[in-house]
Amino acid sequence: MSSNKNARYNRFSSGTTSITTSENTNGTRMETTFGPAFSAVTTITKADGTNTFKQHRRTPSSSSTLTYSPRDEDDGMPPISTPRRSDSAISVRSLHSESNMSLRSTFSLHEEEEEPEPLVFAEQPSVKLCCQLCCSVFKDPVITTCGHTFCRRCALTSEKCPVDNAKLTVVVNNIAVAEQIGELFIHCKYGCRPAASSKPTAFEVDPRGCPFTIKLSSRKDHESSCDYRPVRCPNNPSCPPLLKMNLEAHLKECEHIKCPHSKYGCTFIGNQDTYETHLETCKFEGLKEFLQQTDDRFHEMQVAMAQKDQEIAFLRSMLGKLSEKIDQLEKNLELKFDVLDENQSKLSEDLMEFRRDASMLNDELSHINARLNMGILGSYDPQQIFKCKGTFVGHQGPVWCLCVYSIGDLLFSGSSDKTIKVWDTCTTYKCQKTLEGHDGIVLALCIQGNKLYSGSADCTIIVWDIQNLQKVNTIRAHDNPVCTLVSSHNMLFSGSLKAIKVWDIVGTELKLKKELTGLNHWVRALVASQNYLYSGSYQTIKIWDIRNLECVHVLQTSGGSVYSIAVTNHHIVCGTYENLIHVWDIETKEQVRTLTGHVGTVYALAVISTPDQTKVFSASYDRSLRVWSMDNMICTQTLLRHQGSVTALAVSRGRLFSGAVDSTVKGTSDQITGHNLKLGQGRFKLDIRKNFFMEGSAKGFQGDGGVLIPGGVEEMTGCGTQCSGLGDNLGISHRLDSMILE
Which pLDDT belongs to residue 15? Predict the structure, then answer.
């Protein structure tokens, strides 16, 4: 059985079989040869000896029916026997060679929309190949989100699937179905005519048209060279329309053939016979070589002229660009001259100001020397330098707020990890407890009595008991994140978007007393001092009387939103979004100075006051801490210890604590009176090379101790090492929850 199968396969695939028919009465002999892929080639030999070749393909419906399957070929039409070919007289062979340049295309929705064509199938297509929306064979089939296949146009114009009522969204082209449709056999469009029905898109087979059936995917190839395709006479458009198969006979009889030298002035028009006779007597025929050379030279000159035109256009464009650049350089030069003039005037002003400052410094030094000579030591220390003493490590995200409980020397820090950590800043320097309860970033902390209040991005305020560090109440405070908290006169003030709410503190409860409105932006800064509340929003500081909760004064500022406020005995200080620190006189409410130096938003301000001087600390997005002397309004020191933006400050017993985006809290104090962190002898030392703790004689904290980094380690880790990197480098847990001493 397999041998028979192979024989059949070889017969139709690799071998060829010839069937020769008898000659007809007119002397025409036809021979059909079956080739590979079930194709057949019919050779028709006429009495005059000419041969015509036709290739056919068997249709799936009938093994005996041969249907035409075109390919790039020479249809075997004999050319008109003309001595030479011209531009005006188109020979049959040249016409066929041009018509055989087939345009390959695929069956798609876009082509159907641009050029609707008759579509008559040789056999009724399967229902599975029909779209359930338009009930026609798929056109550009696509798969939708519901898993069904539809025409692309149907899927885009319909809202719901007719099968499961799901929303239709195109996912991908259905290539498999498109290939199946491409294999369907259809009638040539030149063998179809409009059907008698009323539908304009309905067609039927025209028995007088092309009899061939072809695959849908190859219809363009066949129809571009179909003998039944309508064509126009190439010699004269006024000739009646013709079919391609009749074009050869028409060209032999056409009376409108022009002389090939008509473009030079020859007026001959005739048929094929007179055309050949005319060429023998045409006066231009003898000059054709000269004329051809002239045409070639003229063409070369045109090409050269076109190239020159392109070069000229390019040079013109370059000249235009150079002119624009020159104009721009002139403008820039003028601007630079203007800036130079402005800088020169500013330098002159700065020089005068520096001279005044130098005179003031000389006066101040004279005053200091006089006091020193009088024996008043320690009242002023020009060498007061603040230094970072240690780092609290343990948070898993940026630290946004700090608060100090002086009675127990506790420091509270709120972070993006939604927790509040309680640090001992006196004895163990470890995290006493981690308070959890918020569902968002902890943005604000405040202490009143023995209660801690925390505000969060989850729009709530949580009340904590400091004695047992337990949550006692949760209040839904605002419709937006709680940005800042401050307490005074047994009231709690909370700031959010365009609103400040005033709460009466009743035990563990908060009773809403009043909402302060009239604010133009987020309230990110609140400070209570004596009987006044200071609030900062966009380029505005409002001063409220706490006793009647009325606005008594408005300070206008510049530099964008106010992010921080501090109040000293003599000044009101605010930090803004645009790197500036503004200072007002607290009595006259007149702005006295604008402090510059930061290159990022000033997130926090803190004050340390002594009887002799007042220091203001500023924390910025630029990762720095700056120390400002309020006596002469100058920056006396810049601390760069954090690896991220410094976002929060808190002061306790002359010590400054700073929280930053690097997830750490650092403790800073001055060299002389800064309550240096005491060291004692411990039981552990840190071997960095082996990444573990071992018995030894290194120093540790008093009490239980934390982790002490000797002075030599500072160079490697630094005070600004991020929490994750510090834990990796030292071989300790990521949640260290202790202080690292520098």
Answer: 38
Task: Report the C-alpha gap between 687 and 730 in whole angstroms.
Answer: 8
Instruction: Dig out the tokens for 489 from the structure.
Output: 């006169």
Mapping DSSP to helix (H, G, I), strand (E, B) and coil, where does residue 679 land? strand
On the 0-12 / 13-18 / 19+ scale of CB atoms within 10 A, 135 is exposed
What does the buried/exposed string (b/e) look like for 81-110 if buried means 16 or more CB atoms within 10 Å of the residue's CB?
A: ebeeebebbbbbbebbeebbebeeeebebe
Whole-number Å distance between alpha carbons of 534 and 543:
5
CA distance 183 to 214: 9
Q: Kindly provide the b/e burial profile for residues 279-296, where b requires at least 16 CB atoms within 10 angstroms of the residue's own CB.
A: beebebbeeeeeeeeeee
The one-character DSSP state at 6 is H
Range picked from 18-22, 373-377, 494-498, 632-636 for highest mean pLDDT: 494-498
Quote the crossing angle between the two packed helices 244-253 and 92-99, to the nearest 10°: 160
Range in 5-19, 171-185, 242-256 with the lowest mean pLDDT = 5-19
Cα separation, 637 vs 632, in Å, equals 14
| Closest to 277 in 3D by CA, of 256, 233, 285 | 285
Which pLDDT score, from 0 to 100, does residue 42 have?
45
Rounded Cα distance between 612 and 609, Å, is 8
Q: Are 226 and 210 in contact, with CB atoms under 8 Å apart?
A: yes
Between CA 279 and CA 351 the distance in angstroms is 101
**Residue 558 three-state SS:** strand
Helix/strand/coil for 336: helix
Strands 431-436 and 442-448: unpaired
- What SS3 state is found at 325? helix
The residues pairing with 56 across neighbouring beta strands, listed in sequence order, are 40, 68
DSSP assignment of 454-477 equals: EEETTSEEEEEETTTTEEEEEEE-
- Beta carbons of 423 and 408 less than 8 angstroms apart: no
Task: Tokens for 137, please give them.
Answer: 């064979």
- Three-class SS string for 492-555? EEEEEECEEEEEEEECCEEEEEEEECCCCCECCEEEEECCEEEEEEEEEEEEEECCCCEEEEEE
Q: Is 344 helix (H, G, I), strand (E, B) or coil?
A: helix
Q: At what angle do helices 272-281 and 244-253 cross, to 10 degrees?
A: 50
| Neighbouring-strand partners of residue 652 | 655
CA dihedral (262, 266, 270, 275) in degrees, to 10, reads -90
